[in-house]
Write a structure and sequence with these properties.
single chain, about 625 residues, Chloramphenicol Acetyltransferase, 6-stranded mixed beta sheet
């Protein structure tokens, strides 16, 4: 879910809430949470030869033989005993000894904060929830109130450090990302951004921001005794916000956050010269999260709901619609449309999808509960409207951001599908990994459309390690290439095709296991390259080789983000001629989103979505029509 060289390197129990929220303090976050974190292993540095061998194997299906031979020579030279590779490897190992995680800081900077394309479409993922039926605006307010209460309920577990630890294959996972998504915000710079988290302040934030009709409000969500507001109290406050922001004649200041990061960095410095503006911006940045109360989007047919909602989550539809109803730098923004369109968008720098989805699953369950508590209504002070003084220069920056967003909105091509023929239960019945099955269907769909294999990114979690983020599962393998080439070959027997599919799925499973154990190649190669920029006058040839750049040109950027909720995540492609594909496999159906750019004549999201559906069905038919060999 990223771009440029860095971007192409991505992308990627029930606890009863206590009635009293204890604010997080610097000293408190050294208890259970820290003890758990310190018990996690450090991210390893894989052996140099292992990475070099696996790198050449990865290049095999996606590189021409002549180029591969050239790269093989460079790799041999790079890993010679006493050579430059060994020197860089030792530097990386020293770094790993000294640091909590040798990769995490580098990754945050390279993949996110130094990445200068707009976060909109190019970096920030959106999540679409099933459509809700609101009969009136009170329905919208009521749901928003319950959602806010649900997030605060989740925050209680974070504050009290009672969040259940997650496990993968019996191993505990790093929970750090959960402590990074609330009360945090990205801050633009003219060359590099920063991320600030206010949860550890001596006096942590006790407010959220609510935006309606492009107007931002501070809503205090805790009573003076530290207890969160009830759903009824939040509803009353939202109603006040709605009524005092009916006139949509304000400048859409939030549009500024959608611009190219360098442009936004300059506009930001100009914006906060004014004291009022600076205080308003700071209030948004410090808020626990943001709630966007959106106007209805133009009506489309019911079967287009998911796709239209995906556009609304990713970019808001442009300045004429809801894009001014956002602060795209805010880590978490929940979107509730007047027409029942709901979901969220999150700024990717602090966290991957799974912690966001875990929070969302909790909130969705919370909104389904009947409200038991009816507290006596204490008069609450009016939510504070945030004011902005718009100078001619700021107005010019807003107009520029509007025009750039218009181009981006019209360039995004997307199709969100609900594949209803089967879900993860079918691959399981065939003793196949559902994720690997879907990935092989993607390989087949792409091969059928383009008659060649392409570099494919799938996000693998490194959360078995302290401060672990992601590595790359390389879904295009020698075995996947053999399978996709055989699938439509009439000279091949079905039994052979099934054997090749089984082998491809096993290869994918093996690579996945390797990646989550910290033994994949991509972050290691990135580390060696960054070590070279620190230690050497110039980069080793292996990193300026066309094969290396080609291997990172992910025409398929994919991610499995499973959720209990029947939702789907979506994000933009990471290269101009590629696809972004995200999927949520349920028991008996699969939700998936496919994105592309209209400016590329060779890509088409609807055709790829259809090719994926056909591939899934054809693979199922192949397995059902081929009798299993009797042992």
């Amino acid at each position: 879910m990223l771009g440029n060289l860095a971007r192409t390197m991505v992308k990627t129990g029930v606890v009863k809430p206590s009635s009293l929220v204890k604010p997080v303090s610097v000293t408190r976050i050294t208890g259970r949470y820290l003890a758990h974190q310190e018990g996690l292993p450090k991210l390893p540095v894989p052996p140099l030869q292992q990475t070099c061998d696996r790198y050449l194997a990865v290049l095999d299906p996606i590189t021409d033989p002549e180029e591969l031979n050239h790269t093989r020579k460079l790799v041999e030279e790079f890993q010679k005993p006493g050579g430059v590779g060994e020197r860089l490897q030792k530097g990386l190992e020293r770094r790993a000894m000294k640091m909590e995680n040798w990769l995490s800081d580098w990754w945050l900077q390279t993949a996110y904060l130094e990445y200068r394309m707009p976060v909109v479409i190019h970096s920030s993922p959106g999540v679409v929830l099933p459509r809700l039926e609101f009969s009136d605006r009170q329905g919208q307010m009521r749901y928003a109130a319950k959602l806010i209460a649900g997030v605060l309920d989740f925050k209680t577990m974070i504050d009290n450090e009672t969040l259940p630890v997650e496990f993968l294959g019996g191993k505990p996972l790093c929970m750090n990302q959960y402590y990074r998504v609330l009360s945090s915000c990205r801050i633009p710079g003219t060359k590099r951004d920063t991320v600030v988290n206010y949860a550890l302040d001596k006096k942590p934030p006790a407010h959220i921001t609510v935006v309606h009709n492009f107007q931002f409000f501070v809503l205090d969500v805790y009573n003076s005794d530290g207890t969160p507001l009830t759903v009824d109290q939040i509803y009353i406050q939202l109603d006040k916000i709605w009524n005092s922001s009916l006139q949509a004649n304000e400048e859409p200041i939030g549009i500024l956050t959608s611009n190219h990061r360098n442009s936004w960095g300059k506009a930001y410095n100009n914006l906060i010269k004014d004291k009022t503006n600076e205080e308003s911006v700071k209030a948004i940045q410090k808020s626990i999260f943001t709630v966007c109360l959106d106007a209805p989007m133009p009506h489309k047919s019911d079967e287009m709901y998911w796709t239209r909602a995906g556009f609304q989550m990713l970019h808001g539809g442009g300045s004429r619609w809801n894009s001014g109803n956002r602060w795209f730098d805010k880590t978490l923004q929940f979107i509730i449309g007047e027409d029942g369109t709901c979901g969220l968008i999150y700024e990717h720098a602090p966290a991957e999808g799974p912690p966001i989805i875990a929070l969302l699953d909790h909130v969705v369950e919370y909104t389904k509960k009947s409200e038991m508590v009816r507290t006596p209504m204490v008069p609450l002070r009016m939510p504070q409207k945030l004011h902005f003084n718009i100078t001619p220069e700021i107005k010019k920056d807003i107009e520029e951001a509007k025009q750039n967003l218009y181009i981006m909105v019209h360039d995004l091509d997307m199709k969100i599908s609900v594949f209803s023929h089967f879900g993860k239960n079918f691959p399981k019945s065939q003793k196949m990994s559902p994720d690997a099955f879907i990935q092989m269907a993607l390989q087949l769909a792409h091969y059928r459309m383009y008659k060649r294999c392409c570099p494919t990114y799938e996000s693998a979690s490194l959360r078995m390690f302290r401060l672990g983020r992601t590595d790359t599962i390389r879904s295009a393998s020698i075995d996947s290439a053999r399978f996709v080439k055989a699938m439509d070959d009439s000279t091949k027997q079905n039994t052979e095709k099934v054997a090749l599919l089984e082998k491809a799925i096993k290869a994918h499973r093996d690579y996945t296991d390797m990646a989550i154990r910290g033994q994949a190649i991509d972050r290691h190669l990135l580390g060696l390259k960054l070590q070279a920029t620190e230690d050497l006058p110039s980069l080793p040839e292996v990193f300026v080789d066309p094969s290396y750049a080609a291997s990172l040109h992910y025409k398929l950027s994919t991610s499995q983000v499973p959720a209990k909720t029947n939702c789907v995540m979506c994000f933009g492609p990471v290269v101009p001629d590629g696809y972004g594909v995200c999927y949520n496999p349920k028991d008996s159906h699969i939700n998936y989103a496919v994105s592309a750019f209209n400016s590329c004549k060779d890509t088409n999201a609807a055709l790829m979505a259809q090719a994926l559906e056909d591939a899934l069905l054809d693979m199922k038919t192949l397995l059902e029509q081929t009798p299993k060999a009797k042992l």
